[in-house]
Amino acid sequence: MTHPPYHLLNKWLPQKDQHQWVLGCVYHTAGSDYRKARALMLCGVIDFRRARTTLDPRTPQASQRLVFRGVYSHSRNPMYLGMLLLIGLGTYLASPVAMLLTPAFVLYLNRYQIAQEERDLLAKFGIEFERYCRQVRRWI
């Protein structure tokens, strides 16, 4: 028996070579996508808690260890990806605000949040983080 909520992801989490799955998630049904996005973020939180490392994205230097199991074996940023899926649902529902927020969210995260986190993690974990970045994509 798998540990909740991983059982929710087993049916739709992609193989590593499938990069179009997020589009299928966003253009599926809004209700199930909302649950999937929440499950993706929750699994990311659970993986961090199991590793006993910080969840605070403002202090990546406080990380005790790299998390590269569970959903982190598919995406380096599953919690951000879950947030993006939630915003993407607004696009699916034709919300003008969400249509503007989606690209702005990705641009902001890539430039200001994720880039800094990755610099800090590289400084702290070195070659181990470089190897992880080569093996797992930033988003999907």
Automatic annotation (TrEMBL):
Keywords: Membrane, Transmembrane, Transmembrane helix. It is found in: Endomembrane system. Pfam families: PEMT (PF04191). The lineage of its organism: Bacteria, Pseudomonadati, Pseudomonadota, Gammaproteobacteria, Alteromonadales. It is a multi-pass membrane protein. The chain crosses the membrane at residues 79-109. The keyword Membrane applies. It comes from Ferrimonas gelatinilytica. This is Isoprenylcysteine carboxylmethyltransferase family protein. It comes from the Bacteria.
